[in-house]
Amino acid sequence: MSVLTSSSSSSSRTLKIGILGFGPFGQFLAKTMIKQGHILQATSRSDHSQLCHHLGISFFREEREFIEADNDVILICTSILSLSQVLNNLPLHSLKRPTLIAEVLSVKEHARNVLLQVVPEEMDLLCTHPMFGPESGKIGWQGLPFVYDKVRIRDEATCSSFLHIFQSEGCKMVEMSCEEHDKIAARSQFLTHTIGRTLSEMEIESTSMNTKGFETLVQLKESSVRNSYDLFSGLFIYNRFAKQELQNLELALEKVKQKLLQKMEEQSSNESKL
């Protein structure tokens, strides 16, 4: 694993970037890319033509036209659950020249494996995960982690220019293997979402006598449910380390429960002797 700071030198040029999947996260990234002067094009299952027109982005209803639009980079911003279907239906053989295929999914081994299976061998592959989103990154990306793995890179200039988008915004650039990412993310991201979703099932709400700790729990619940359930389930289904973390959480909760019950029995026994 290596870490680059925003002060690291990196060459950059204007890129023509095609965004595949123009949902909230794709829109969020697009605004910064436009601000930096990159040329953007997009396609999505939903019709975002009006929004794209407002942002100065070319929107394609037909995926073949999007693929043939001569992008330097195609950035995949689909959901984890739909990745395989979307890429298998994409006419990647229509790409006119070697192109950098990058993705921003929250699971990396699955994304890498699908890309290696589907994308033509002459295309470069870059797996990335911006560890922030529209909420946490709304006032800037300074100091926020951006994880990436150069799965198959021959055109270093294009790859460097794409990474510079995030580096120049002050992201902490972390080069890490897809496997290591998923192992860490299962304990951090998936566990966070799981606890947030559990609190949601408990229907916890703010009270008139909140402690700071409870306010943190309420905020965690609210931030978790703002993300789609597809994202949460994708973190579980396609990260092979997530199932073990879920078991670890269950075991830990059971241990805490047993310790409390044991303490209660001891206290009851002591009181009965008085």
From TrEMBL:
Output the Pfam families linked to this UniProt entry: PDH_N, TYRAAT1_C
What are the protein's UniProt keywords?
A: Coiled coil, Oxidoreductase
For this protein, the record's Gene3D superfamilies field holds: NAD(P)-binding Rossmann-like Domain
Looking up PROSITE patterns in the UniProt record yields: PDH_ADH
Q: Which residues fall in a coiled-coil region?
A: 239-266
Q: Where is the Prephenate/arogenate dehydrogenase domain?
A: 15-274
Asked if Coiled coil is a keyword of the record, the answer is yes
Q: Sorted alphabetically, which InterPro entries does this protein's record hold?
A: NAD(P)-bd_dom_sf, PDH_N, Prephen_DH, TYRAAT1/2, TYRAAT2_C
One GO molecular-function entry: arogenate dehydrogenase (NADP+) activity
- Give the record's GO biological process terms: tyrosine biosynthetic process
Record-given protein name: Prephenate/arogenate dehydrogenase domain-containing protein
According to its UniProt entry, this protein's organism is: Acer yangbiense
Taxonomic lineage is: Eukaryota, Viridiplantae, Streptophyta, Embryophyta, Tracheophyta
